[in-house]
């Protein structure tokens, strides 16, 4: 994950989250494990005009994928995908080598030229009027939570994740490390997006959620040890996420990589102290 440009983390079901990662400027020889798709992924693939590599899906999700405008850019493991897609851990984990994917795309007749990704505005200098944010906590559930600590030396936020369930005890964190190079996962920008989730179906065993990421809403961006309240905007399904400041002008991302934490609208925001912020995700019931 240290080579990806953008990562979206979103709620799935039963307290869990998933990542969808966008590789644009760098390749990675081992990406994964690649898991099954969710409804939310459609938002990201549409927005970035991306090729989508995934490991199957629940039938209603597959139906939405194959009825999408990008149905011809879907890649599932098959005889034609090796060595771009491969198995590790005695076949238990599906992985990808992004440097090998162009050959698969050529075989499938997929256009692999650079897409129009206008919408993100970058500036090295941090905008004025931010508030201190040395630590940012995002709790999706008692089982899945994370923390971002600002490292002044690198100018990045370092990611720490849950190491035990916190239903009946305190949150306990450990560094999230990329197994490819043993580096701790970090981000130049962390964006907390407030997006409306809705219940797609509820059964006796679980609740499946959908999310609408077309429109606009409140968001927070953390960069350079500061936090800013902004507005996210995605006017159409073909638009990528852009941010606007309180002055109505485009808000600048720091050049580098970005993690988007996608929480439900109406989450609880608190400040444990003057240097930290805490976002508690609350799903529709």
Residues in helix, %:
under 10%
Q: Secondary-structure element order, as H and E? A: EEHEHEEEHEEEEEEEEEEEEEEEEE
Could you say what the CATH architecture of the largest domain is?
3-Layer(bba) Sandwich
What Rg do the Cα atoms give? 19 Å
The largest sheet, given as strand count, sense and whether it forms a barrel, is:
8 strands, mixed
Q: Given the helix and strand composition, which structural class is it?
A: mainly beta
CATH class of the largest domain: Alpha Beta
What's the CATH superfamily of the largest domain, by name? YerB-like
Determine the oligomeric state from the structure. single chain
* Number of self-contained structural domains: 2
Say what the CATH topology of the largest domain is.
Answer: YerB-like fold
Q: How many distinct beta strands?
A: 23
- Overall pLDDT: 93
Q: Helical stretch count? A: 3
Strand content: 35-45%
Shape estimate: globular
């Amino acid at each position: 994950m240290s080579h990806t440009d953008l990562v979206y983390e979103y709620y799935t079901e039963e307290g869990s989250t998933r990542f969808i990662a966008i590789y644009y400027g760098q390749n990675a020889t081992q990406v994964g494990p690649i898991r099954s798709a969710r409804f939310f992924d459609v938002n990201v693939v549409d927005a970035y005009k991306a090729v989508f590599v995934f490991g199957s899906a629940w039938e209603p999700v597959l139906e939405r994928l194959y009825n999408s405008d990008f149905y011809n850019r879907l890649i599932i493991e098959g005889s034609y995908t090796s060595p771009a897609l491969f198995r590790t851990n005695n076949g238990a984990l599906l992985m990808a080598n992004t440097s090998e994917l162009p050959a698969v795309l050529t075989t499938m007749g997929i256009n692999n030229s650079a897409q129009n990704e206008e919408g993100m505005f970058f500036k090295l200098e941090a905008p004025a009027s931010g508030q201190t944010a040395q630590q940012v906590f995002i709790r999706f559930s008692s089982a899945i939570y994370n923390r971002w600590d600002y490292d002044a030396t690198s100018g990045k936020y370092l990611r720490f994740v849950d190491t035990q369930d916190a239903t009946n005890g305190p949150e306990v964190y450990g560094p999230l490390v990329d197994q490819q190079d043993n580096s701790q996962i970090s981000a130049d920008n962390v964006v907390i997006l407030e997006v409306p989730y809705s219940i797609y179906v509820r059964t006796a065993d679980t609740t499946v959620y959908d999310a609408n990421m077309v429109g606009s809403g409140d968001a927070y961006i953390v960069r350079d040890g500061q936090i800013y309240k902004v507005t996210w905007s995605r006017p159409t399904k073909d638009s990528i996420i852009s941010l606007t400041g309180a002055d109505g002008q485009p808000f600048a991302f720091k050049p580098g990589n970005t993690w988007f934490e996608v929480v439900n609208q109406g989450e609880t925001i608190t400040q444990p102290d003057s240097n930290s912020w805490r976002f508690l995700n609350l799903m529709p019931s």
